[in-house]
Amino acid sequence: MDRGDEEYLYVDGIGIKTGDIFQFYYSDPNTALASLTKVHDALKSIHLEKNSKSSKGDGDNATNVFGGIVFACYGRGESFFGRHNVDSSPFLENFPGVPVSGIFCGGEMVRPCTTVIGQCEGASPISCCLHVYSTVYLACLLYTSPSPRDLSTS
Asked: 49 CB contacts (<8 Å, ≥6 apart)?
């Protein structure tokens, strides 16, 4: 930034031109905690789906979580939330005893800008959604398909 005043913000850099759109991000632990509730619920649905299939006698056709990996922005963690293990808690609470590993990294691993469901909201074809102070969860599932004899109608 080369200069500014009370009315305008001036930005300078390679490839930046008049009319470019900028987004500013303010990291907020309370918002992050609210999104962790959504993650917890999404992982819980995997857990409930397994239990539902097992109770119907489809135990051979169940999904089993055997591990997990958590990729979190290095800006998160105890210094961000004021307590430890916050990012791992959705996984640990839904799958107690299942091994989980993780890493704090600079630059989260995220889906590409365009997906099978379309672009990120408000994104132009040349822009991309920015993910900052985020965490990505990978649940490792073992899926056992039904045996051919279970599929037969005889």
From this structure: 63
